[in-house]
Design goal:
15-stranded mixed sheet, 3-stranded antiparallel sheet, about 10% helix, about 50% strand
């Protein structure tokens, strides 16, 4: 199983195990963009979804979660994960108001690129950072990406799916904080031996919170394609068990 570059294992890998065919996309307001830059984040009464392990149809791949959880909002720092704020899910509805990050919550630009712009597997890692094609300007930029974990060891991530008879694609929203206006640029990177292609990217970020949408496409031939944009389509909050 491939691990994503943003800490959580996305639902697409669970869905791939149960789907026998693909039909319609799994989105909320697909491709209808909302702001991509925020000085502060607030999620209030947003529906949470869980994987449906009994379906063979993409349109039924998720069901509305109706339970309750406590949620920690965490950052990856050089000394490990750090919880910066908390939230909750009540009757399936998520509410979080992450605090503004402090300087000691941020990591340098090299660690930001190293942690979040590669994939990591057993004995192998690769991506824009490992290839050396990615740069951030200005180089003195600091930032971080937040992740969400429940008190039941589940991860939360915003995502959506679409598919065809020969491929399945997913999109994920990540909330990245940077302390200054910056640009992240990378050339296309190919790992032909593994069937991975990381598309050329250019991400223009503003100081504060930004949304990066990462798209992954997996084909029946075993090829994987990764791309990123600064957009914010209508994706769903999906809750998944994390590996022990």
């Amino acid at each position: 199983m491939k691990k994503t570059i943003f800490l959580l294992i996305p639902a697409i890998f669970v869905i791939l195990k149960v789907l026998s065919c693909s039909d319609e996309p799994v989105y909320d307001n697909s491709k209808i963009n909302v702001p991509t830059h925020f000085y502060s984040l607030k999620f209030e009464n947003e529906q949470v979804w869980s994987p449906n392990y009994t379906t063979g149809k993409l349109s039924n791949a998720l069901y509305k979660f109706s339970g309750s959880r406590d949620v920690n909002v965490s950052l990856l720092t050089p000394s490990g994960f750090k919880t910066v704020t908390s939230g909750y899910i009540t009757n399936g509805l998520l509410t979080i108001n992450p605090d503004r990050l402090q300087d000691n919550d941020l990591i340098n630009s090299n660690d930001l690129l190293r942690y979040y712009f590669d994939i990591h597997e057993s004995g192998w890692s690769g991506g824009w950072y490992s290839n050396g094609s990615i740069v951030i300007s200005p180089a003195a930029t600091k930032g971080n990406v937040i992740s969400y974990v429940t008190n039941n060891n589940e991860g939360l991530i915003k995502e959506g799916f679409s598919g065809s008879g020969s491929s399945l694609s997913s999109e994920y929203i990540y909330y990245i904080y940077v302390d200054t206006k910056c640009t992240i640029i990378a050339n296309q990177v190919k790992y032909n031996t593994y069937g991975y292609t990381f598309d050329k990217l250019s991400l223009s970020l503003e100081a504060g919170w930004n949304t990066i949408c990462k798209k992954e496409i997996y084909t029946t031939e075993g090829n994987s394609y990764y791309s990123m944009e600064v957009i914010n389509p209508g994706l769903r909050w999906v809750m998944l068990p994390l590996p022990q």
